# Entry
Amino acid sequence: MEEEIKSEVESNMKLSITHLIDALSKIRTGRANPSLVSNINVEYYGTKTPLQQLATINIPDPKLIVIQPFDKNSINEIEKSIQNEDIGLNPSVDGDIIRIPIPSLSEERRKELTKVASKETEDAKISIRSHRRNGIDNVSELMSDSSTDDTKRIEGEIQKLTDMYIGKIDKILNKKQDELLEV
# Structure
């Protein structure tokens, strides 16, 4: 039973890391990245549909995103959705494709984005600690009639998991900050 608790805690921590990576991928660096636009929802025949299901998204160079819709009739809706998303990108239709130039970030904007990334990582750390607390509470309930040595040992193992995942979060943040501050 204790192994199940540790396994559940670890899988929840992995989900927190996955969520963090997803959130950070949406923070724009100075380079083109498909994740900047892939999850934008487009009104397509009355249904909100993610852009990645309506078009291919290519990065021909580090400062340009090219979107080629599968259905050429959806090109105006895709352009409108990107403009309404408020991500600071200005798409332009060029025949059957949409070109999105990625403007360079100012130093001030880079620092703002590092603060946003720091907040996202702090939220992930809070989530990790919450999973630790839930795991320790479950262990305490389960082992209320067992020896305190066993309980302390399992709590120590959960704490080691927590420390490991907090370390991963710090590494992810450092990497993202390096990307953001790179000129």
Remarks:
- The helical segments are 2-25, 75-84, 107-142, 148-181.
- The chain has two domains: 2-26+106-181, 34-101.
